[in-house]
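Help! Submission page says 'invalid entity' but I think these are all valid:
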Amino acid sequence: MFKQIILIFLLMVSLIMAGCSSPEVEPTPAPVSEADLTAVKQYALDNAQQMKQGTTNLLTAAQAYYDLAASSGFDYQAMWDNNTTEAAQLVADAQAAWVEASTHYELDEGIIAGVPSLASYDVWIDAGPSAEEDPAEAYEWTLELPDGRSLTSPGNFFHSLLEPTIWGTNPEFTGLAVDLDGDGAVELGEALPEANMLLGAAQGLDGATSEMITAVTDWQPSLSDAFTALVVMIPTMNEYFEQWKLSSYIAGSQTQETAFIGASRLFDINGILNGLDITYDNVADLVADSDPNLHGQIADGFDDLRGYVSDLYTQEQNGTRFTAEQADLFGTEAQNKATALAGQVSQAAVLLNITIEE
Amino acid sequence: MQRIRFFLIFVIIAILGVGIVTAQAEEMQPWQTADSLQDTLFLAQSALLAGDAPAAAEHIAAAQAIAAAWDDLPPASRERLDEAMMMAATAVAEENLNALAVAKGQAQGAIYGGSYLRTRQAIEMGDTPAAQQWLLVRDFRPSTRFSRPGADATLAVRQLTAENLQEIVARLDADLLDTYQARLSEHLATAVDTNIVPNRRAEAAGLAAAYWPIIAPAYGEQQGEQAANRVANQFGDMVTALLAGDETAVASLATDLQTTLQSFRAAPLSPSEEARRAGQLMRFLALVPIEYERGVQGTTVMVDLEIQEAVTFMQGAQAAFADLRLSLDGLDAAKTADLAQQFSTITTHLNDANRRENVVPVDQMVTAVTQLMTELEQLFPSAWLENNANADFDVLASVLDQMETAVKAGDYALAESARLEAYAIFDFGPEPRLLAFAPPLVAEVDGLFWQGYSGQAGLAQAIALKAEPGTISTIRQQLDAALAQAQLTLGDLPSAPGAIITNAAIIVFREGLESVVILAALMASMVGAYAHYRRPMALGAILSLVATAVTWILAQRILSSLTRYGERLEAVVSLIAIGILLLITNWFFHKTYWKDWMAGFHAQKRQLLSRETGQFVGLLLLGFTSMYREGFETVLFLQALTLEAGTAVVLQGVAFGVVAVLVVGLITFRLQARLPYKQMLVWTGVLIGLVLVTMVGKTVHVMQAVSWLPITPIQGLTLPYWAGLWLGLFATWQGIVAQAGAAVFVVGSYYLAEFIQSRNRQQLRQKTGAQPAIKPSKS
């Protein structure tokens, strides 16, 4: 009996080895995964939900404005003449709601635009060009307006559609340029929006925000997401500062830029860096464990870059008007800091064996 | 007068500041000092731009104090930094914003140059902490589609030991010199661009001029010191011309300097890196017509994504060609220029197709790429054409990128095609060597490419189920980690004879055991009157050993042509083996499991003898294929070892392995012979069945790998990787159905045998009216 058992055992072992050309072993160590990115997701979700509050308010204002315009037969002069106070208030409400929504989006943008699985929302909501501006890069979608018109690949909601509509920087989206603040002059940013455009875009933004919230809710953040967001989003300072330079905050009324009038681009940059800083904070321990000096350099780099942009924004808010040359200098310096910071984060990702996606 | 006042302010502040800053600097890390200096210089720039010259002067003085206290920079860098500080002070005194920008750029370059030298010295002294500290002060190459900011130096410094100092220095040079050369070229382009504001151009010119001393020694080594000095002067002239507003001179000098930069490589590729680039070049090029053919019909683009993939692979090939250009020029400049023209033509065709304009037919594309590859092969040194695992991994990663792109675009058919391409690159390239040195890694990589490994789903399954891009990405990350480990393993193979002997012995033992178990199972029943059936099987086994030896000799010469067939060959051999095994199984049950088999044998002896020849050939074939299948695999695996350590060392391992197999074989057959015959028959039948079912499962898997069978995952079923390895069980309907069919065949064959035997006995009883004369054997 003993021999039988031995034989059976031997044959079974041999069979197993015949079927298995190699012994089972532990798999290759996966990239480190100790970081808890729940806080990053929660941050993104909180801001997305506050953004939604803004888009809801915007939709409410846009609907009321549309109803008012409809009651005047979309004759904006008649509407302004007969309902000056109400129309001005609705435009102010729309502007405030836009700023509210935009502010919270910008706080999220570093994450939404940097995480590959969420990045399409950034293109749709905040960053994508229109087909007219860049046919190759334009996001393919169609905006349906209440009057039945369709706009194909019209760009992003915030800066291609709503900002030019609410602040009247695109004549096509403007009902009538008026003296909203009653100071006796019709200045840049003072206009009655074209009601169809305002309502259609506000409805679209509200819907897109809901979709984005669902996507963020479903998002399972990974270390690769976190490091990809950092490496992809940090080094784009030049582009942001260039937009700032061309905006009304630098170029004044001579600006050709239809966007970045509702809020300074510096505020956006601040928001983006805030989101990225929070993202880094949540992976910082891993980097510190791997290379304390590198972590110190990255943490200091974030503080430096954030402080730098924040300081410029504060100066701007306090009334400083920078020149184009200054904006260029500041942008170059910001880019230098960002290139270095992105390079350092890349080193950390490699040390931690974390893949940075394209 | 104003200048004198500013200089006095500098002197006073600098004297006061140095004392304070010296104490701080001693505690600061190099990167902190560098950042502090740069920030202070920027404050001076901002102040001067805002028209506040006194504030700018204060900042410059503070910067000078920081620089003066930084006494551990190498002397040459210190000198350049001091010059930059003086220039900055003069610029502020003259309220010359552009000159200040130049000075800031030169200070930055001086710091980077000093940091590079200090890192190098620390490595040469084996001082890892110092090397790590200084390496933090560096510039980075901006990322592109094919390159991320380099991290080779960071990784290299971590691997520093007393034995590999020179290797680490070489890796540092390769990373940093390459970075600074690329950045220099970028800064030069900025400096000459009149659309950019003067201030930014001036800083770029300063950076370019200051980066030159970092790579100048390499240029001097290649072109001579005089030439290096001449270039340095040109940089100086360009800065002067820029500050003087002489755009003609700036443009002319910048053109000359760009030509100089393009004519040399500060960190020349090592021979192995050249071979790697050459491997990438050929592999990427080979993929171009494949994608093009899939995307174009006639002169019409049918699938845009395929064309985009072709464009991407062509870009990869061009990047590799650019890296090899200097070396190729050295081999044959005229030919290289002609090849560059061919690259350009093919790229134009691909770009046309990408725009759906003037699409060339597939034949034209195939011919163009084939000609280019042929001419490249003729020009390449032979060492570049050898197998190159690193190039395989590079291209494999790029193809996996395409897979993920296709997934994101929702084109899962294209993703599956890219996955199979990537797997084929792994299968034909690194896998054989990896099987010899680290078979567990092969299991992991295979699992992640297919149905999963250790709880992680596989790509084949995920793509077939149209998983979300995030899910595919997660699998990809795990696969990347396994591939990185595989690459590391192949790049760091053990060369000690002991390790090679052990590996060889394990391979032979492992494959030998497979043969033993099959032979033991089949020969178990051949006892007593049937013992002579062992002879043809044994003869087949012996012949297989001879064939294996012949294969060993041939493999030295035709290994590449054998591996080219890869899994297609394995699929064909496996199908033949299954066919024979099915025949044998059927025969086994019909002849072995009759309950009154021993009695029946005597009655049918004559009939059996008449089939003797056919059985002899069948058994001989079975013995041969069972053994040769393993022998063939063993030879392939051992080739990788012979490449590393030579035949003599490997044969020692083979000898150990053979002895171990013989011992286990003897024990098995001896114990087997002592088992009660009936129990042995039962176990033999079960084992044959298991062998058959496993072999069918694995063969289906192989046929799926070569696209001979489709893949339909069984939703909700996740099998552990060992089930595939041990039992050929994979969670696809094709595999499971085929294995179920094989199992039905085995069991059905048994019952059919019983049924026929029962019917024959009944017919015999009806004919004779007699009872069975002999009871079933109890032995």
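Support: the input was valid. A stray whitespace character was the problem, and the output above is from the cleaned input. Residues 434 and 501 of chain B are 16 Å apart (CA to CA).
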